[in-house]
Each structure stands twice: as C-alpha cells, then as structure tokens.
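Database export, one record per block. Field names are fixed; values are copied verbatim from the stored entry.
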Amino acid sequence: MLFQQWLAEAQALSREQVPEPTAFALATAAQNGEPSIRMLLLKDADKHGFVFYTNLESRKGRELAANRHAAMAFHWPALEKQVRIEGRVSPVSDGEADEYFATRARGSQIGAWASRQSRPMERATDLDTRVAEFERKFEGQDVPRPPHWSGFRLEPSSIEFWRGRPNRLHERQLFMREGDGWRVQLLYP
C-alpha cells in the first residue's frame, strides 16, 4: 500500500525533520453540518482502514456517532508529501480497543479515566485531582479500559496522494474505491 510506504519514509526521518510522523488532522461534522478539525495520532493502517482512539464522549466521539463520514489529512513537509483520506468510520471491536489500551503508558491509561474530554473545567486543578483519584483507585493493579474510551476505523472511499514539485506543478493521484478495488485518477495541481 502506497500509504504505508510514505509513512515509513516519514518515520525514517529525524524527529527534527518530522516530529510526529503519525500525526494527522481529523475532520468531522455535527449533524447540522458544522465542521470541526483536530490533530490525532494514527495507531494502525491496513487494507481495512485507518485506526485512531478517543474518548467516545468527546466532541469528536459525539460527532462520529452522529455522522459517520470523516476526513483525514497527513502532511509531511520535509518530504513534500501529503495524503488526504475520506470515508466512513466504524467502531473497532472491544478486543482491538482492549489490546491497544493495554500497550499505552500507565499515565495515559489513567488519563483516559481522568479526562472528561471536551467538557468544561471549573478550576485548572480539576484534572490533577481526577488523575490522583484514579491513581489511587487503580494502585497496584492493571488499569482497565474505560467504557467511554475506544477506537474508530476510517474505511476510505477515496485517498489522494499529493507530492510537491517545483513551480507548484504538484503531482496528485486520487484513488477512488470501486467495489473491492480502486480506480486511479490523476488530478491537475
């Protein structure tokens, strides 16, 4: 898959050149069509789609529950490459979410319990208070995955590969899903 090749190229560069190769912008929309966008980290990519994790009660979680269409964009300026992906999301299985959650650092696991992602805080210390509460709760034991935390898989209906060229004469290849295969279309820059 061309995406894995480009991601591997980004991962081979230094952190100064590409600080976080798996970072991408995720665009979602509420039921009324209002868009929102934020940066996330890709956790898996294969022939079935692109996987990321989140708090299901967050704004993005609520928007994805209401509108299953989303878009992703990866940008690697040091390579002069970007990838745009559009498609539908579906939840990952509980088994997949549990397996990934178990690989997270303990602090990130506690943070998934402590954060009321996207909700207002009354005081700046509220998050620290909740972190301490869940550190006590799970002291001396494995941290289970919270029921409000899971992942999504974006199954692409289209993937555009963009490569920068001099004079803004960029190369653009658009892959559009057709049945079990892909139709490729070259685009003007």
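Remark 1: Residues 2-187 form a domain with the Pnp Oxidase; Chain A fold (CATH 2.30.110.10).
Remark 2: Helices lie at 2-12, 59-66, 94-103, 106-114, 126-137.
End of record.
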